[in-house]
Amino acid sequence: MSSSAESNPEAIETAAAQWLARRDRGLVAAEQDAYLQWLLENPAHGTAIGRLEKAWQALNQLDQWRPVHSPQPNPDLLAPTRRGYWRMSGAMAAAAMVAVAFMLWSYRPAEPVAPKQAIIHPGPERMTLEDGSIVELNAGAKVDVAFTPAERRVQLVRGEAHFTVAKNPARPFIVSADKLAVRAVGTAFSVALNSEAVSVLVTEGKVRLDEMSVATDSGESAPRELSSLIAGQQAVVNMAASTLPLVPEVREVTPSEIERALSWQGLRLEFVDMPLADVVAEFNRYNQRKLVIEDAATGALLVGGNFRADNVDTFVRLLDVGFSVDAVMRGNEVVLRRHQ
Hints:
- By secondary structure, the protein is α+β, with helices and mostly antiparallel strands.
- The chain has helices spanning 3-6, 9-25, 29-41, 43-59, 90-106, 255-261, 276-284, 296-299, 312-323; strands at residues 119-121, 125-128, 134-137, 142-147, 152-164, 173-177, 180-184, 188-193, 197-204, 206-215, 221-230, 233-238, 248-252, 268-275, 290-293, 302-308, 325-330, 333-338.
- The protein is built from nine helices and 18 strands.
- Strands 2, 3, 4, 5, 6, 7, 8, 9, 10, 11, 12 and 13 form a twelve-stranded mixed sheet that branches.
- Helix 2 (9-25) crosses helix 4 (43-59), helix 2 (9-25) packs parallel to helix 5 (90-106) and helix 4 (43-59) packs across helix 5.
- The longest helix has 17 residues, at 9-25.
């Protein structure tokens, strides 16, 4: 978004309405990161979200009316309070229409309303190899394992996989993908293969990239070293290029970029309009560091999103930025409370 749009209240309010609608149906992992980044970009973004939430809460009072009670809603439900009244801008009115449409669509008088609960998304397929190395397979990925006394070789047939390699300097660990080989001793990295490129992201230690089956002067085939990568670096090698040799494009990646790239790993928890107290209880099932709600008002906040079960820090940051909830360390606990 341009700087002029960032300073335009109407543009900010429109974006806030869009984010609020997405939050209502539940954010996927990538949207969760984008929403947090958007809130951090400008204090006005969080302010706009707060204004729209108040309008949304007022409209939620329509939930008190059902056709079984009366053919017409109670006109006092949305009446202004004695303290004053609020006005809707175009963006707020749009968000209000979304809210009303959602409530009317979701209303089913003949069906009981089920209590909301966390949706648990299982983690990726996990393989423990004979040497103790661990391979995590993203959805649809496939590997073939061929260990010998001299080396440990894994071929990535398709998709994406993350490797946590058991250290053994005498027996190198090699992942091949198309014409590329990734050589490691004791490290952690991911490899993604598609029809055009191979991507390698190093999260721990160091790896070497080799081009396989390169003819030597003697007529024999041998690997050719392309580059070395250390933790925090990513290389993308274009396999569709007609010219050889292969040329890796290497760049530095930030911790947040690594987190997004590996967001498919681990057990995930999805929440849709659940009280914070219930969300905290779910997180505490999977983490030694416990979240603690300081008061009932904080515990009653309705939150939603899609999170890694072990990523408490990102969840707490979102509460701070998006819901005005402070986090205070107390031993092995994180105490949560609304801003005063």
